[in-house]
Amino acid sequence: MKKYDFLVIGGGAAGFFAAINCAEHRPGLSVGIFEATPRVLSKVKISGGGRCNVTHNCFDPRALVRHYPRGGKELLGPFHKFGPEQTIAWFAARGVALKVEADNRMFPTTDSSQTIIDCLQGAVQKNGIELRLKALVETVEKIGDIFQVTLKGGEVIEAKTLMLATGSATFGWSVVRKLGHKLIEPNPSLFTFEIDHPLLKGLPGVSFPSVTAELQSTDGNFVQEGPLLITHWGLSGPAVLRLSAFGARVLAATDYKADLYVNFEGRIKGDEVFAVLMNNKNQEAKKKISTVNPLQGPRRFWEALLEFSGFAPDKLWADANKKELFKLSELITHFPFRIQGKGAFKEEFVTAGGVARSEIDFRSFQSKLIPGLFMAGEVIDVDGITGGFNFQNAWTGGFLAGTAAAEMVSGARAEPST
Ligand SMILES: Cc1cc2nc3c(=O)[nH]c(=O)nc-3n(C[C@H](O)[C@H](O)[C@H](O)COP(=O)(O)OP(=O)(O)OC[C@H]3O[C@@H](n4cnc5c(N)ncnc54)[C@H](O)[C@@H]3O)c2cc1C
User: Fold this and answer.
1) What is the 45 CA–ligand 1 centroid distance (Å)?
2) Residue 403 sits in a domain of what CATH number?
3) Most buried among 227, 235, 290, 354, using CB within 10 Å?
4) Contact 296/274 with Cβ under 8 angstroms?
């Protein structure tokens, strides 16, 4: 029967990183990766629109953890050991240079996710790691000190240490549950908001550099700032994606129905906008309201807002009364929408939920319940917002798990802490 020192289930970012770092940390160990499908690293391939947003240009762990709606606290220690700085150096040492974009997302300079795949696959080969494709693991048991893994077809393999890097596949969660771990209900994160509202009709493609958006629900309120985009189905853009991540659980609980308030002028308050409108009434009295756009958004949006608010297209500033302008300033800074559903964000999505964080020792990403069982990536109840944070979680967990497993099997360190 084949027996590995370290066997990784799942050929994604976390699994590859764990296997490579285990093999590099203690050369000579027998390390394997079993992947259910005919292809590895398929999410890396499609990530970041085919460019792979590898990490984020943020070297302060305390700032970095704020981008994780779930797991930020637990990732603080791990990021001190292996964060974006170490990720950049790791890839650079293997010939892959990363570049920073204006919004601090980091991509390979080639702008191709294949560069990352080639790098990881090259490291697997170089380190003699056995990669098996179409190897669907069906059951995992721990008998004494040894893990027994059964593949579809009945083949049984043994491993001294085991890594579950099965991402958001239900398999990994059912395995850990059977092994006694608690599972936090999985829900999608990083999605757009479906909103059917007359104001948005005819405005798809219109964007705002910085709005404030507040999600209100009976289970809690969430506020995020950032760019906003009007789509054919509702609202998208960084402010909405961040809200969808921080509010993922609350939104799932309400079946994606909630109230959303948008301040189209960002942090500028209603009374300040009202003052600007009153000033226009005095200074621009003879001009049409529609031709003097006081907002950061485009004129198309201003005109649509005026129409929605009942202003005639050729009404002059002089003819607008104080009450109307006050109502308009309220709408600009506190526009009420009703979220009716969850839309797709094709560039990136992730699952909130997974193996309970309280049962994982984040120094090594080892189970507190089952010594020798490691987990990293999306299988754990950790997720980040869009911007390279989800891969960083996979690299960090993969690195710490792989090196800890290497030490464990070579006898340098023994048990996980509880
Ligand atoms: C479209 C898209 C774009 C994205 N873009 C980005 C981005 O640019 N930046 C970023 O940071 N994040 C991005 N993400 C998120 C990121 O891809 C994930 O967080 C990350 O891939 C998780 O890695 P993982 O190794 O935990 O899981 P996965 O990459 O999902 O890998 C899990 C692997 O396990 C295998 N597996 C499952 N069950 C079994 C089994 N029983 N036996 C054997 N193998 C099994 C699966 O087939 C899979 O290959 C994106 C996600 C999507 C969907």
Assistant:
1) 10
2) 3.50.50.60
3) 354
4) no
